[in-house]
Amino acid sequence: MPGLTIGDSVPNLQVQTNQGNFKLHDFIGDNWTIIFSHPGDFTPVCTTELGKMAAYVPEFDKREVKLLGLSCDDVKSHNEWIKDIEAYTPGCKVSYPIIADPNREIIKQLNMVDPDEKDSSGKQLLSRALHIVGPDHQVQVKLSFLYPASTGRNMDEVVRALDSLQKAMKHKVATPANWKQGDPVVISPSMSSDQAKETFPQGFETVDLPSKKEYLRFTNV
Ligand code: BEZ
């Protein structure tokens, strides 16, 4: 399967954005970074998504995460479109850069092409892809979303997934279904009970299951 996915390193592409040109690795550095794509400028769902992403900037700042948008249209179009986005979502400021990719080179390498969507001239369109890149100097994709053009993303879920990644990286735990910040987390099955006692002196609770296998263990970190 071609294209960027979990565990891969982001290619160090030279990109053109409405805030200048740079190489992706220079932008990412050793920061958590979200790279997210949109089918096109001046389209309805995208206008709501970019506005919502801008409204969530304080949440991303709190988590020390950089944002980088991508839509195939050119920089001039991005700058015009930003006026619409900010008017539609009052109070928001599109402070993050948006990559332009009129030749559709970047989107192929970042695995952001929607195979089923074409624009009016028959050119390939972007999917709503989103890669969360880790801060570990490996510019490695830690999580990817891939939505079709018809489905706008939920930014609460983006923040929740980011919280899970950050929690898992810091404490070597995993987060269960529907987890949110403050909820108990689960201890990895690869950790023995003795190791768990040492790692989590605050204690943990093992769920009594019909199998009597002690693999579902919750703790608070
Ligand atoms: C939209 O952003 O609304 C959109 C863009 C391309 C295809 C379908 C919807």
UniProtKB/TrEMBL annotation:
The keyword Ribonucleoprotein does not apply. SUPFAM superfamilies: Thioredoxin-like. GO terms for cellular component: cytosol; mitochondrion. It catalyses: a hydroperoxide + [thioredoxin]-dithiol = an alcohol + [thioredoxin]-disulfide + H2O. Pfam families: 1-cysPrx_C, AhpC-TSA. Belongs to the peroxiredoxin family. Prx6 subfamily. Thiol-specific peroxidase that catalyzes the reduction of hydrogen peroxide and organic hydroperoxides to water and alcohols, respectively. Seems to contribute to the inhibition of germination during stress. This is Peroxiredoxin.
